Write the structure tokens for this entry.
Amino acid sequence: MTPEWLEAWTPAEGADRAAAVFRARFASEPDGTWSAPGRVNLIGEHTDYNGGLCLPIALPHRTYIALRRRDDDTVRLVSAQEPAGLRTIELADVAPGTVEGWAGYVAGVAWALRQAGHTVSGFDVAVDSCVPYGAGLSSSAALEASVAVALDAVFALGLAGSDDGRATLASFCVRAENEIAGAPTGGMDQAAALRAQAGNALLLDCLDGSVRHVPFDLAAHGLALLVVDTRAEHALVDGQYAARRASCEAAAERLGVGTLREISDDPRGLEWALGKLDDDVQVRRVRHVVNEIDRVTWFVALLDAGEVGLVGTLMNQSHASLRDDYEVSCRELDLVVDTARETGAAGARMTGGGFGGSAIALVGADDVDQVAQAVADAFAAEGLRAPAFLVATAAGAAG
């Protein structure tokens, strides 16, 4: 089986594609085009909604939109990826539970801006994207963030010009995803889409929202980050993700802390916390979260020291924890990880929310094709749907 590679569009190509969809549907010119990246998380999974640390990079694969403001309250939406055609929504009618499907990620951003007191009216928008859907690479946050910077521009809100303003926009995107789209995710994806810098990983402290840009240049060390979209169904609105979050919140309440991050910072340590829990599921969830927060710290320390090749061990530990303690891996993700390691990867792990989606492997720059071929062959041998591949480099944020 020949591996399928998912190529990123150039910014000019992406903008032209979105503008072409806009002209074809609305027979007029947009006010402009905007885009935002997907993301891949290097380490720090399911830590964001626990007040922890995570370390994503923005992908060169982006969602592009063409948008024109309107003077009424109507939002008209069309996407090259959605065959259903034109959607029409009245902003005054948007509320939790009122908008189904992908349109909720768009209308939800406008709703959140209005909820915060910003003056936003209707708009026409056309979407085209090379961020793969359902791959755990945050196509939803890419859509939200592209809409956020577009609305910021056409309604002159003045937020996208500073990191503090972008953090505020990210919070509105989180509200859109949680309350309108109905996915109870944390804030990592939106932060990566709006606050990342090219050539750097984004160390995000989800307790206070602060960020640090950590240089991340694998090529300088003869390495590459291979991303494998397993094409196993990945959805964050089917209850499994929410169940993990609820279990962590219940454990935090039992332990008398606001978030599980406080256990990571507590001098009494993880064993003290686990000893206070009598629910085996909560024990395993807490063990993953606290250890995963520590792995982020160690990962960054290795990057700072220039010991990039050593982070693979932390990736391997993270995957085992996500598989066994957090129980969010699946057959396809485990197959990628096992095959990549057997073919020489320094480390591999699932990335994103899990239950499908993507895995990443740290491989030699000259070994990318070999590892991808081995994974493709392993999927074929197991009778699984063919995966797709991309090589991730740290790209820039929405704009």
About this structure: The longest helix spans residues 280-304. The longest strand covers residues 56-69.
